[in-house]
Amino acid sequence: MRHPLVMGNWKLNGNTHMVNELIAALRAELSTVEGCGVAIAPPEVYLSQAKHALSGSRIVLGAQNVDSNLSGAFTGEISADMLKDVGAKYIIIGHSERRTYHKESDELIAKKFGVLKAAGLTPVLCIGETDAENEAGQTQAVCAKQLDAVLSTLGAEAFQGAVIAYEPVWAIGTGKSATPAQAQAVHKFIRDHIAKQDAAVAEQVIIQYGGSVNAANAAELFTQPDIDGALVGGASLKADAFAVIVKAA
Length: 249
Ligand code: PEP
Hints:
By secondary structure, the protein is an alpha/beta fold. It has helices at residues 16-29, 47-54, 80-85, 96-101, 106-118, 131-135, 139-154, 180-195, 199-204, 218-221, 239-248, and strands at residues 5-9, 37-41, 59-63, 90-93, 122-127, 163-166, 206-210, 229-232. The model has no long low-confidence stretch (mean pLDDT 97). Phosphoenolpyruvate binds at residues 9, 167, 172-173, 210-213, 231-235.
């Protein structure tokens, strides 16, 4: 039995004041919610502060990235052990903004997946097609290729306890969400693709939808059988909107 997970990706937003204010508001809004996992991924510099502010709440700490190296001369990077040390659990990798602006390859992302699993952390693997790929009918091929980078190096068992976020690039931050039926079709494809290697792992893996999820469209998306919650960008910066999404899941 899968439980949905709603995770907020704060991206490059926040300051010390905002971190405390937003977490306090989320704690108040979500104090009675049950049956849905909730996580937030503030910028790395605020992780310890956020961990402290979340103390005693059921909201879990996440992070937006990890380096594929474990330690050493990699200026500016953050390791899986460091994330674990400050109390982060769900770690976003392969976000389209990192694939695009930082030229992260499928192979690098698979390596990040491996270091997170080895550290006992939960990868939140973002996959999804661009607008052009969607128009060209390549959605399934793109998702399969992005999944295969992990499947071929780590095997289907690596997805045991992991999270996949299907995030069509054309829907991220655009206000144009996939329809529930569109998203469901891709989520089912993703689950079936993993099931070809391991049906039990495919059945339990959480597949979030991400891309302009908001308080108005979340409930309908969550009616779909293979949509297990959401990865939320813009709407995760507003406690009331994020709480509506969590409650809908
Ligand atoms: C994201 O960045 O992962 C995301 C889904 O953003 P938004 O909700 O703003 O589209």
